Amino acid sequence: MMPIPAVGDAPAYDVFNGDADGLCALHQLRLAQPRDTHLITGVKRDIALLQRVPCASGAAAMAVTVLDISLDVNLQALRAILDGGGTVRYFDHHSAQHAFPHPQLQLFWDDAPDLCSSLLVDRHLGGRYRRWAIAAAFGDNLQLPAAALARRAGLDAGATKALAELGQLLNYNAYGECLADLHYRPDQLYRAMQPFADPFDFIAQSEHYRVLAAGWREDGVRMHGLAPHWQRPGRAIYLLPDMPWARRISGPLANSLAARGGGDSFAVLSAGTDGNWVVSVRSGAPEARAANRLCEQFPGGGGRKSAAGINRLPASELDRFIAAFDRYFTLPSQC
Ligand SMILES: [Mn+2]
Question: By the number of CB atoms within 10 A of the CB, which of 20, 58, 239, 266 ranks highest?
């Protein structure tokens, strides 16, 4: 049972990314330190979450826990909460170049490539709910570190696979343009996980797990039926229609194409409800042809060398994008 906050207690907020990593980071923490809190979360790409904490001036100091969203993106809201007398505990592995020391800020931050927020919480708790951390690491695409941790935890191949699937399903639920695209709002999904200290019980008993597994199968059939809109040797472009299922699988599709390896580059363009495209690009040669350099040629484009995107590509720019993509990723042997 969740303890009811005593009268006069400061309001507490848990602010977390709606993906597997955010969910499992919060879940581990609240299993260890139960507290009735207000939940603030959203779809996976909704990361400017801290500004949603109501900053009532003159209110008693609030306690805010933040999980798996970039400090840089939430800098202003973080400062406002601290300036208002609130305390913040922050676990994250995204960009935090503007991190600063503050007596009311406890920052657990590490962007090592084999870490995620759930693993930072796992470290903080001394591995107390490690199975949830392993599921999260799989969900956050950290296949090797997750498998290594599972081995060290004595899990056999079947159990490891079950946690990998759980992580994938929790992560899959967060993909969409808006909450209506998702099977469950991430705060609902978290509440469904809350009674389960052991993820294997969640897998065996939760209706939410069954719904996600069925949704994943259905969307997977649609995903595997997709043919590229445009294709040349070593590079392809996929167009996804303006449908909730398509917005749910855009991330998993990009991940599964990337997982094929082989040095291929590709773009997945999802039709937004506003008629424009949301573009995600993966480079098969990140050093020679950084994905972000292609995307930066378009307004709202950016990202990393291996994976980048364009937030809003006008429908009228589709042909220009395909031509630019083609030029950029043309294989040297064909020049
Ligand atoms: Mn993460």
Answer: 20
